[in-house]
Amino acid sequence: MSTAADKPVLPGSLNANRSLARWIRINDDGTVAVRVGKVEIGQGILTALAQIAADELDVELHQVRIVTANTESNPNEGMTSGSRSVEESGEALRYVCAEVRALFMQAAARALAASIEKLQVSEGVFHVDGKRTSYWDLAAEVDLVREASAQVPPKQAADLTIVGRYAQRIDLPAKIFGEPAYIQDMALPGLAHGRIVRPPNYAAKLLSLDDAGVRALPGVIAVVRDGDFLGVVAEREEQAIKAAAVLAQACRWDAPRQLPHEAQIYDYLTSRPVETAVISDKKDEKAKARTHTTLEATYRKPYIAHASIGPSCAIARYDGERYELWSHSQGIYPLRGDMVKCLRVPADRIVVHHADGSGCYGHNGADDVALDAALLARAVSPRPVRVQWMRADESGWEPFGPAMVMKLKASTDAQGNIVDWTHETWSNPHSNRSGRGPGSTLIAAPHMADPVPVSPPIDSPLPAGASHRNAIPLYEFPNQKVARHLIMDTPLRISALRALGGFANVFAIESMLDELAIACGADPVEFRLRHLKDARARAVIERVAQMADWKSGEKGDGTRGRGIGFCKYKNLGSYCAVIAEVVLEQELRVVKAWAAVDIGRVVNPNGAINQIEGGVLQATSWTLKEAVRFDDNFVTSLGWDTYPILTFAEAPRVEVQLIDRPSETSKGAGEGAQGPTGAAIVNALHNAVGVRVRELPLTRERIMAAMA
Amino acid sequence: MPERFELDVNGKVCAVEAEPDTPLLYILRNDLDLKGARYGCGTGQCGACTVLMDGKDIQSCDTPLWAVAGKSITTVEGIGTRAQPHPLQQAFLDEQAAQCGYCITGILMASKALLDRNPEPSDRDIDQALERHLCRCGSHNRIRRAIHRAAQAMGGKR
Prior knowledge:
The complex is a heterodimer of chains A (708) and B (158). Chain A has 708 residues and is of the alpha+beta class. Helix content of chain A is 28%, strand content 21%.
């Protein structure tokens, strides 16, 4: 891999992966291999990237073969996260493919003795005056092992024929026909089955172990102990499950009960030492002097789980020298970085292949289970071992989206203009991902007899931000102070969950905006527009109001009501406005949601809408139902009975419209809708029944308490 | 002790040898190489492992091997293929009714059981039939639409 030092900055991930051959290979079967470092996590990214490549190369979509990310041949694109894949990988591919096409055009012109200007290209075939050649005919003549120049401009929006149109997801048929499609389904010769036995809590130490009984169980190949790390390997999967259950009973642990009480979690967090940063400070004394009405409120969001339907899984093989791993990690290169430290072998002796998993929605147990598998595989080398976490492993040990507290204070003048705004956010950092820091963030790393120290979590900086993501409002306020209080004490294991702090910050901002609008007697849609200059922001709000046939000043009827929420994701990405309609029955139910979204140039409209629908529904689930439960020992929400999520009967109808802007940069669609959805539901509840609930989730108990 | 069982899966009789209390899911996935039923929770709460037993949708993760002897099991592999998709599979593709897709095969099997007993289900019927199926990605609306589309394509015939 070439390095980027002292060289011109190239677009997207091309900057760090500068060889054309790293991205594109002309296969000899009439297809083009497109190698990417971004991975499929159910968001349809591989289809969108294939569309981009096909369009620039002038081949058909079905002629593109996406090569699943791996650390041997594919570019290093870091993490697949933050809705950045179209921006990073897509931008790189646009320039790579434009340049590859230009190189082949030159070769084709030579081969056909024609001028480049006269060449036509379609389906990968270059033709002029009845003569033809193709990518495949010319493959030997064009050496792609060369540094990208990024000097060949990609197509203009008007010339795109595949981007912007419907494309069926390339990965879905295998998943719908029940073919082996996920890492969970991979079969390797001699595959053995592993299960792990975790300590009873985060702080526990293994005192003693009597594993003779486990070793005698049918099918057991090995009981693996490495310090406080424990696992079993068996011939058959059900044997591994039984052996792990027996092993769990054969351990004596010192397990101090160290967690704060769930009921006091917000007080606990806000009383910890913090690192405070003021991230926005605007002053206008004259405007402040017009203060007429001031509101103050505190908003709270609990720990939320990724709650993947398929618990994490990994396969590992160790031949005595080299590890080969299959993982559904969002970052195979960063994962390899942690593996180097934990397995204590150099990077060139570890290969990580990506394989699809169940949807992850951020950093779940995918990386952790890869180390588990490697440790078990080392013990039974050279047999490959498949480690499938059980439901309780995932629900208990996955890193959660952090609990957050937002204190807001805002003032309006007599005309209902916001003249002063203060927003303080208390939060843990939002990333515990692999591949950085002095140690490792993998669960087993500190458990090993020769432990690898735990790298502290990080909170990505602004402008995208993490705990402070979307804490700076897009609205125009003359006085504004926004502060982030970062709490480094992390009682529960935490990491990146879809939208990071953006969900909670938008919930708080948009709730406060609603409270102010009501205090001023203003319509919430008009009140937002009053404070927004950004034309694209105004456009999504106006569009969603139109879609929902919003009536200015509309009031709920005592059980049913509607509310709005808006954000520009990360203040850099997509624009999204959501109107939700709720009805208070036994529980609060969201009946319908409308979303208007601007993601710039749309690559796959159906895929983008699918992501937004999913974002709305998942955020509905977070807002109505979800909170990680725990006692002073450990997480207690270890299954779906204790961590319920949205069911079919509870799923609102969702209507989405995209405002396509072909000349604007494409932005990701996966995370823009969450904040606006949560806020719209909270605001709709107020519109319906006249009570303001400022702590999530909106359970029946909480709503009743607010109404009392 | 492992015992030998004869199973009728997708119309074929297969012999397997395993402990009688082995969950059917692992027999299907590991002995019969039918990966379409997915592991989600192991306690019958999420529906990802759903298959049909004598036409009724059951959770294979908490159905022991001994309980399926003499019964007819249908998995997603038994209802259609890429070359000959079941109308439900075609409808799920047409509606792009999945994101990660992990829950989908289980939902397809519950939907098949639904359409077999109720060729024209309402939204409410669908929600009831899928009560025990969790979809984390939020494809619920597309799934409902796909089931309606399949029902229409099947024209009441099964």
